[in-house]
Amino acid sequence: MRSKRKASAGIYVVCIILAVLSILPFWIMIVNATRSTVQIQSHAISLIPSTHILENFKVLTGKTFNPVTGFMNSVIIATGATICSIYFSTLTAYSLVAYEWKMRQPFFTMILAVMMIPTQVVSIGFYQFMYRVGMTNNLLALILPAIAAPMTVFFMRQYMLPSLNLDIVASARIDGAGEFRTFNSIVLPIMKPAMATQAIFTYVTTWNALFLPMVLLTRKENYTMPIMVSLLKGDIYRTEYGAVYLALTLSVLPLFVVYFLLSKYIIAGVALGSVKE
User: Fold this and answer.
1) Per-residue pLDDT tens for 112-123?
2) Residue 230 near residue 214, CB atoms below 8 Å
3) What is the pLDDT of residues 251-274, one digit of tens each?
4) From CA 94, how far away is CA 182, in angstroms rounded?
5) pLDDT confidence of residue 275
6) Residues whose CB is less than 8 angstroms from the CB of residue 30 and which lie 6 or more positions away in sequence, other chains included
C-alpha cells in the first residue's frame, strides 16, 4: 500500500511539474505584455503583472498594427479552412471505408505519399497557379486548398474503421435515405470526437501559418495576426518589446479559447480512434 501511495504521489508531482513548465512560458509572455520595455530589458523575469499595458497598446496601434483587422482575417481563414478540411476529409474517409471500388487502395496509397511532401516544396507552383487565376490577395486562396488535407483524411479513416458500423449505413440505404443524408445524419455524429480533435489541430496550424500568407497576401488590409506580429520592428534606436509581447498575447488568446472549448474531445478522439473491435 505504501509503495502504491508513493508511486501515486510521484506521478502527481511529475504531472504538476510538467503543468507548471507548460504554463510558465505563456504566463511570462502575458506578464511581459503589461511591462515596459525598460522593465523587460533591465530586470529579471517577473511573474507579477505590471501597469503599462495601455501604454504598450498605444505603441502597438501606432505602428500600423491593426489588431481588429488582423484578428478578423485570421478568424475567417482559420474557421473556413477548418470547416473545409474537417468536412471534406471526413467525406473522403467515408468513401474509403464504406464503398468498394477498384482504385480504393491505390488512392489511399497516393494520400499517404502526398503526406510526405512538405508544403514549401510546392509553394512556388502554388503561388504561380493562384496568380494566374487571380486569387492572390484573396483570403479564399488560403481557405479552399484546405479541402485537400491528407493527414486529416488518414486520421479520419483510421478512426472510422473501428467506429463506424456499416450495417447502420446499409439500414439507412434500405430505408430510402440518400448518400449525403446518410453521411450527414449518421456518420458525422459518430465522428464528432475525431472531428473535434482534428479541428483543434487544424485551427491552430492555420492560425499560426506565416509562410503561405506572407507569399499570397501583400495588402495590409488582408494581413493576418502572425504577419502583423512578424512585421513589428522598432526603429534603429529602440524596439518596444512590451508592445511586441502584447501583440504575441493577442495572437495567442483565440487559440486558448478554441482549445478549451474542444479539449475534452482530444483524449476521447485519440483513444477511441486507436481501439479496434
Assistant:
1) 888 888 877 888
2) yes
3) 888 878 877 777 676 666 555 544
4) 11
5) 45
6) 49, 249
Q: How far apart are CA 276 and CA 175, in angstroms?
A: 28
pTM of the model: 0.80
DSSP state for residue 187 in the 8-state scheme: I
Residue tagged 504538476 (cell numbers): 16
Please provide residue 65's backbone torsions phi and psi, each rounded to the nearest 5 degrees.
-95, 115
The residue type at 253: L
pLDDT score of 227 more than 80: yes
CATH architecture of 56-273: Orthogonal Bundle (1.10)
H helix runs in the chain, sequence order: 2-32, 37-42, 53-61, 67-98, 104-115, 123-132, 140-143, 150-163, 166-174, 179-182, 188-190, 192-208, 211-216, 225-230, 241-262, 264-273
138 DSSP 8-state letter: -
Q: Which residue carries 449505413 as its cell?
A: 169
Residues in the chain: 277
Report d(CA 78, CA 65) in Å as an integer.
20
The three cell numbers locating residue 185: 445524419
Q: How far apart are CA 46 and CA 249, in angstroms?
A: 16
Alpha-carbon distance of 243 to 231, in angstroms, equals 12
The mean pLDDT of 9-38, rounded to a whole number, is: 86
From the CB of residue 35, how many other CB atoms can be counted at a distance below 10 Å?
24
For the chain, what are the domain ranges? 56-273
Q: Are 210 and 227 in contact (CB under 8 A)?
A: yes
Mean pLDDT of 9-18: 85
Amino acid letter, residue 181? R
Would you state the pLDDT for residue 276? 44
Helix (H, G, I), strand (E, B) or coil at 263: coil
**The C-alpha cell of 266 is what?**
482530444
